[in-house]
Design a protein that fits this description.
The protein has two domains: 4-204 and 290-313, Aldolase class I (TIM Barrel), CATH 3.20.20.70; 214-282, no CATH class. The protein is 43% helix and 15% strand. The protein is built from 14 helices and eleven strands. It has helices spanning 4-9, 26-34, 48-61, 77-86, 103-108, 120-129, 152-162, 176-184, 194-197, 206-213, 236-246, 251-258, 262-268, 292-313, and strands spanning 15-17, 39-42, 66-71, 91-95, 112-117, 133-137, 143-144, 167-170, 189-192, 220-223, 230-233. The chain has an eight-stranded parallel sheet with strand order 1-9-8-6-5-4-3-2. Helix 4 (77-86) links the parallel strand 3 (66-71) and strand 4. Helix 8 (176-184) packs across helix 14 (292-313). The longest helix is centred in the last third of the chain and has 22 residues, at 292-313.
Length: 316
Amino acid sequence: MNNTITQLFQIKYPIIQAGMVWCSGWELASAVSNAGGLGLIGSGSMYPEVLREHIQKCKKATNKPFGVNVPIFYPDIEKHMEVIISEGVKIVFTSAGSPKIWTKKLKDNGITVVHVVSNSSFAKKSEDAGVDAIVAEGFEAGGHNGREETTTFCLIPLVKQAVKIPVIAAGGIATGRAMLAAMALGANGVQVGSRFIASNESSAHINFINKIITSAEGDTKLMMKQLTPVRLLKNIFFDSVQDAENKCVSNEELTKLLGKGRAKKGMFEGDLNDGELEVGQIAALIREIKPAKDIIEEIINEYKQAKEDLMKYDTI
């Protein structure tokens, strides 16, 4: 496949693996890149020197392009950026903050910059800030999400209409048919997150992965919109947050309930009761653990078959 995204990142397929906290270290990123996609190291759960170690290991594991996802609200953001620049990383995806803060600095150091947004207004601001592409992430996505609750099918054409730079669709994409649908709506590529959590190379705890592959439709919900919206799998912690929100507790009380290290406890340490389990709605379709390479091949093969089927059976 050859389009603006494959050209921008110099990759074989326009498939980007999302940079997910506690799930996407160097092993997953390098495996996705070796399979023809773009692997991303999720730096949001890493100390700066841990990030450096993952970047160096990723360099040894692949000679293909890879990148780093950086949440701008991260407390040690300056140190993270220093590590990224000093290690010669060529692609950075920023999220959860204003792209104006770091885009120029990164681009001045020869880095391709992509920013993740949840609405067309932020997409336009990102384009004005000089980013090279946009990830438009719909309401279906796992982890931190937009307050607008705009679904991917609505968001992609809205963002495509608002900007001239390439658009990468995210949220609810785990199959080739979903990829084809996103491209039909105007996306130039897709970002896949939840599907790669259930991969052999994922750094997620096996308890969390097994919870995903046994989940059902309706088992996730967007929570904590008072603070930072996040989509979670339902568990005891989820129930306590929902109860607190139903009682209209203050932000301070909700923050106290959240505490520290909830995502690590759930996603990395495997505490299915009291941990925070971040995953998208598409988890209900994921039924097995596979190598990242097989996931990429499955998506591409299904994409091609779905495209052929449309051409074959479309009589309009």
